[in-house]
Amino acid sequence: MYMQRLLPSSQIKIILVALLVLLAGASFVYNQFLLNRIMAQERSSIELWARAFEFNYLPIHQDASRDLSEVANALRDYPNVPDSLSRIILGAESSMSTTDFIFSQIIEPNRFDIPVLVVDESGFTVLYRNIEDEDGAIDQNLFIEKYAAVNEPIPIQFGLGPEIQRQYIYYGESPTLQLLRYFPYVQFGILALLIGVGYTTYKSITRSEQSNLWVGMAKEAAHQLGTPLSSMYGWLELLKDKHQNDEDALSIVYEVENDVTRVKGIAERFNKIGSKPELKRLSLEPIVDDVIEYMSRRLPQFGKHIEVQKSITTSAKLDINPELFQWAIENLIKNSMDAMRDTNKEGARVAIRVTQDSDQVCIDIEDTGSGIDRKSINEIFKPGFSTKKRGWGLGLSLTKRIIEEYHNGKVFVLKSEPGVGTTIRIMLPA
Q1: What is the DSSP string of 82-131?
Q2: Which own/partner pairs from 224-228 qualify as long-range (CB within 8 Å, at least 24 positions apart)?
Q3: Cα–Cα distance between 308 and 295 in angstroms, integer?
Q4: Contact assessment for residue 49 and residue 129, using Cβ atoms and an 8 Å cutoff
Q5: Residues facing 311 on adjacent strands
Q6: What's the half-sphere exposure (Cβ side, CA atoms, 13 Å) at 413?
Q7: What is the CATH number of domain 277-429?
């Protein structure tokens, strides 16, 4: 029953996690695709810049300029050639050439924000751009190693034959590309946050619905118990009148009346679930004594002798609702006795210890029962969880609600070992 109740929530959790992983994976793949496209474009830009560098310094341009100057000067020696022709040739040579255009429009302007470092064969820095430096100095080896790890350097060469000089262009990533690399993680974080908020909201709504369901069931049960309890009191009065001279019969009648009164108290407890209880400043010892006295008279039903021990070392008074708090203690003691039902150990016992530590009062319920396995420790206070074949799994859940919601305390498993026993602790503000 418990697993069936949790199955839809587990499925939703799995679906949400799968959706998060799917969206994150798709985002990462698409982002990687964009990164590769941008990296290819940036490399094309750097290669174009490198080729412009090479073209600008080709010897053919210098030779052509020199030849034009020589031709223009030579034409002046021929009187039949107009001077205007020489002036045209010299003007064409001195005007803006292709190499001037490449240098002024491509090489010189900083048309991209990619960090670039140009070094020659000896490792000397020829040129760098978009690299932050201090006092005009840069750590060349650091940038070369950093950029070489990201992009393969682009070689360029100048001159012909034995006079060839080689240089290498190392470049990094533009700020846009660097920011884009972090985008999947940001997106993943946002998706995780949104899904987490959605799941938390869903769980909150589910818990609220469950709480309202338990409250409705509890109040309905209290209402339904009212009529038969009234009838039972009437029948008990008749039995008293009929057996007023039979002490043994009367003792049984009075004991049954005590149990009926107890059931009436339980019905009143159920009726208080969901309502704000009235807290009174009381001592714990009388409440614990009442619980022990009531439970001790009913120990024979467990088929073995179970010793109930009590140790109270504080006289502090707490703000508690006696009916609800007594119910919580009863549930814990009953749970301890159930844990010892199927054990064959001698010296079965339940020990209740009440101590005070600074501004906290600790109530420990210790038993020598079967213990709780590690995987169930965090589950025992959840509604519907039960290790009993016929258990509804409501006792410890109600106990947790009574202690934590109505008395601002805490209840948890202090220690437990299978086959040895369990200690559950209640902590209340003093």
Answers
A1: -HHHHHHHHHHHHS--HHHHHIIIIISS------EEEEETT--EEEEES-
A2: 225/263, 225/264, 225/266, 225/267, 225/270, 226/267
A3: 9
A4: no
A5: 353
A6: 20
A7: 3.30.565.10
- CB-side neighbour CA atoms (13 Å) of 306: 30
Contact 134, 9 (CB under 8 A): no
Q: Tell me, what's the pLDDT at 386?
A: 67
User: Hey, where are the domains in the chain?
Assistant: 113-173, 277-429
Strand, coil or helix: 274: coil
3-state secondary structure of 195: helix
Q: What are the φ/ψ torsions at residue 197 (nearest 5 degrees)?
A: -65, -40
**Which pLDDT value is given to residue 86?**
58
- Show the tokens assigned to 1: 């029953």
Alpha carbons 331 and 394: distance in angstroms, whole number: 10
Rounded to whole angstroms, the Cα distance separating 122 from 324 reads 87
Give whole-number Cα distances, 377 to 13, 235, 418, in Å. Answer: 21, 45, 11
**Positions of the chain with pLDDT under 50:** 1-7, 95-96, 99, 301-303
> Looking up tokens 């001159």, which residue turns up?
159
pLDDT at 278: 83
pLDDT at 307 (0 to 100)? 79
Q: Are 285 and 312 in contact (CB under 8 A)?
A: yes
Q: If DSSP codes are grouped into helix, strand and coil, which group holds residue 377?
A: coil
Q: How many alpha carbons lie under 13 Å from residue 399 in its C-beta half-sphere?
A: 26
At a CB cut-off of 8 Å and minimum separation 6, what does 115 contact? 128, 129, 130, 131, 143, 147, 171, 172, 173, 174
